[in-house]
Amino acid sequence: MDAKIISIIAAAVAVSIGSIGPALGEGRSVAAAMDAIARQPESAATISRTLFVGLAMIETMAIYCLVIALILLFANPYA
Amino acid sequence: MTHGSPLATVVVFHLGPVAVAKPVVTTWVIMLVLAVASWASTRRLGLIPSRRQAMLELLVNAIVTQIEEVIGADARPLVPLLGTLFIFLLAANVSGLLPGVQAPTAHIETPAALALMVFSAVHVFGVRARGLLGYLGSFAQPKLIMLPLNILSEVTRTFSLMVRLFGNIMSGEFLIALVLALAGLILPIPLMALELLIGVVQAYIFTVLATVFIGAAVGGETDARRSAAVIHPKPGDS
Question: What pTM, to 2 d.p., does this model score?
């Protein structure tokens, strides 16, 4: 296998494995936020704003993987 | 593939030695449209708002309230920067849906410039609020051993601000281009609606995170109140 094929496989592995953790984390945080809104509907605005910011933070991990994959595919220093 | 590499840029023309790329031209057009629209819509403001002015006041009030809720202090010094940032990002993210236009935030240079802007604004507002020594001292909070981590987090959060915006907008456009190349006419439309939603949410998130960073550098209301209580203790306080 030459470096090109290895980097294509590595890009796919990076995105697929790297998005598992953020997906689980986002699911947990949305579930917790739903729980909190169900208990205290009056603080829904604050909770959803904090939720959005937190989701953005978690999502960054998956997007790092995406950027690594893009660098491997389009700006690969080795192939 | 219709777009080619998402990391490459298309140079439109050269301005002397400076190459002007396509996202820059799009940014200029957006800036022009926003500037003319702001000028035209704030020209005849009255005490009794017209329909247009009421809409404008609604938008500005919404931005001010959001900022005040996040930083818990007077939002007015931050509104020019953060409001412009939000409106520009909204226009830039959504502009990718116009035929023939690619969102400038889908290339890494524009998010990089915006993130650098936020990075410098954090320090400017921090120094202005706390003084140079007070602001530098806040990096050694809560313990001196946190100093390297705090400095590192300044850099990484700016980087992640850039990568988050770029990754979301670029991946949306890329997905639409792929689906368009695979299956014709109707199928990309729901994805474009999703991309519209993602663009608005990312503009909101970028602005809120910038607000949070600036608010942390300025040192929110609770810190100010606590130090005020230490300096001038009220008779009732124990």
Answer: 0.81
